[in-house]
């Protein structure tokens, strides 16, 4: 008698050339990841060779019931760490049957910005630090915290080891390896300042691929947490009070910034970001005002600031960049629930295309 695990782990390539493609898209809230699977006749590595598909937009808050069909356009392919073999994960964006991007499709506009000749020539690199909190499923209270109570104050938990300090490492490490398997350019993980909170980093990734990779990394994390019976929260301030919030610090550089004399380009770019501070804050994640208070390694939401090695600033420049006169900077304002398509393309637009 076959066990359920035996059937889940069946190697399809032993008996068929057919593969399973899991189509992934973003639902109506802008943060809810949806997916469904279909069978393809053989292995595919080019998203342009994948068929478009449709779904019921009235069930995701993206279309009315009387005209509910939304069309999925495949945009990026990753190896499937759950089914393995030649099976794939497919990141899609969503359109009306007439071919217009639906309002929640933020990828479409981002792709236009990244395909602009001036932006493409600068080869923008991104490294996104995605913080998140693991919650006990039934209580919606951080993993490892006493039921209805609080652990000891922050201090011992950041990058810590030990059963009384690190909670959920099996999920975190499984996610790390699954992302590497999938072909996501995940560059590291660490335990965060608040117990039950973790971070993974995606990048350096170029242009639109930064958004594709971060969204699929989020999807993989949700799937692994589902298996473990744990909830993932991207709330920027999951616990009120003297606890760190959760951000998605976005490291950024252009070709000009990485070349000799790049520090002057960086300072000019930061000047542009300052002039458009309100526009960026409005697009950097819902509930961010609960996180950007000027405390817990954040700048105040109403005031733009920048500094070298200053984690209390809106934008931080590293010591290496200052010393070498070229490199990158870190926008510390984006919240953990930001849309990476919006944030990455907006930074490129403001620093490359926008003229004060």
Automatic annotation (TrEMBL):
Record localization: Cytoplasm
Q: What keywords would UniProt list here?
A: ATP-binding, Cytoplasm, Ligase, Nucleotide-binding
Q: What is its main location?
A: cytoplasm
Q: Where is each GS catalytic domain found?
A: 106-356
Q: Which domain of life is it from?
A: Eukaryota
Which Gene Ontology CC terms are recorded?
cytoplasm
Q: What are the EC numbers?
A: 6.3.1.2
GO molecular function terms here?
Answer: ATP binding; glutamine synthetase activity
Pfam families, per database record: Gln-synt_C, Gln-synt_N
Supply one GO BP term: glutamine biosynthetic process
Location of the GS beta-grasp domain: 19-99
* Catalytic activity from the UniProt record: L-glutamate + NH4(+) + ATP = L-glutamine + ADP + phosphate + H(+)
* PANTHER family in UniProt: GLUTAMINE SYNTHETASE, GLUTAMINE SYNTHETASE CYTOSOLIC ISOZYME 1-1
Q: Which family does it belong to?
A: Belongs to the glutamine synthetase family.
Q: Subunit structure, briefly? A: Homooctamer.
Its name, as the record gives it, is Glutamine synthetase
Lineage here is: Eukaryota, Viridiplantae, Streptophyta, Embryophyta, Tracheophyta
